[in-house]
Write a structure and sequence with these properties.
Length: about 325
């Protein structure tokens, strides 16, 4: 009994949860999730392949889009195995180290996506406010540096948050409330003081996603001010149209994230399956929708994708 009350982190086996109360329908529930995963993986792979293989897309805007597609692929793969494993095989067990690894990569790709969206906002600001120097400011080497900085930023801010979980002991039920390892879920199972973990976790998210969520709207304030100074209505419309896809990507990233936070904080009255379904879908909405938005709204991407699909048919 004493072992149960003070289990060391290295020996912990967590139990993931599918959709509470709807376990009998897991096979049916898996069908739309399979469709979403297939759409996310194929859509982002196609966009990434188009940007790599089409010389006409070797421009700063599309390099940033390739970063977005890469993070979306990483985010999808991070949850795919455990989520479909539960729905298909009721494979709920996950070791502590595997749980920490999954948690780290989910958080890392989430923070990277936020950082890429901020970089894309900067790209649109430079393209609209100083088009003559656009290619000089955003050179290939500078874009590479931005990409490396995005990875380093996420790794440095999230490593302490995840590593601090190893100092905790887990004496309560080992049942997690999601089909993937969620940082607050794991902390709730600890019988050790988690105040340091809470502070470090909150600091990590505020300094990354929180800061980005302020800087992106600020970028658009500057962009709108620049657009309004353009004399020609036709040129104003053309300038703003180049931002539509990015605005859509920002919305589908932050709205589900904010919704999940509100549901966790204020939706305690909601049935457990509501929390689970929102948590499962919020990680899939951006990877599914981003390639669709950019393929529909960006003529160059649409043409490149159609060209690739046609070449495969012939």
């Amino acid at each position: 009994m004493s072992n149960l009350q003070n289990t060391t982190s290295s020996s912990v086996i967590f139990l993931l949860t599918g959709v509470p109360g709807l376990e009998a329908f897991h096979t049916w529930i898996s069908i739309p999730f399979c469709f979403l995963y297939a759409t996310a993986l194929s859509g982002n792979s196609l966009v990434l392949f188009a940007i790599v293989t089409q010389p006409s897309l070797h421009e700063p805007m599309y390099y940033f889009l390739s970063m977005l597609s890469t993070t979306d692929l990483g985010l999808s793969v991070s949850t795919l195995v455990t989520m479909l494993g539960i729905f298909w095989f009721n494979a709920r067990e996950i070791s502590f180290n595997a749980c920490l690894s999954q948690m780290f990569f989910i958080k890392l790709f989430t923070v990277m996506e936020s950082s890429v969206l901020l970089a894309m906002a900067f790209d649109r600001f430079v393209a609209i406010s100083d088009p003559l120097r656009y290619a000089i400011i955003l050179t290939d080497s500078r874009i590479t540096q931005i990409g490396v900085a995005i990875v380093i930023r996420g790794t440095l801010t999230l490593t302490p948050m995840v590593a601090l979980l190893t100092r905790l002991s887990y004496c309560r039920s080992h049942v997690l409330h999601h089909s993937y390892c969620f940082h607050p879920d794991v902390m709730k199972l600890s019988c050790t003081d988690t105040r340091i973990n809470n502070v470090v976790g909150l600091t990590a998210m505020i300094s990354t996603v929180g800061v980005d969520s302020v800087l992106i709207p600020f970028s658009y304030i500057l962009i709108i001010k620049t657009i309004l100074r353009i004399a020609s209505p036709e040129e104003r419309k053309k300038a703003f149209s180049t931002c539509i896809s990015h605005i859509g990507a920002v919305a589908i990233f932050y709205i589900p994230l904010i919704s999940l936070s509100f549901v966790h904080r204020f939706g305690k009255w909601a049935p457990p399956y509501v929390h689970t379904m929102i948590a499962n879908t919020y990680l899939l909405i951006p990877p599914v929708m981003n390639p669709i938005i950019y393929s529909v709204k960006t003529k160059q991407i649409r043409r490149a994708v159609i060209k690739i699909l046609h070449s495969k048919d012939t």
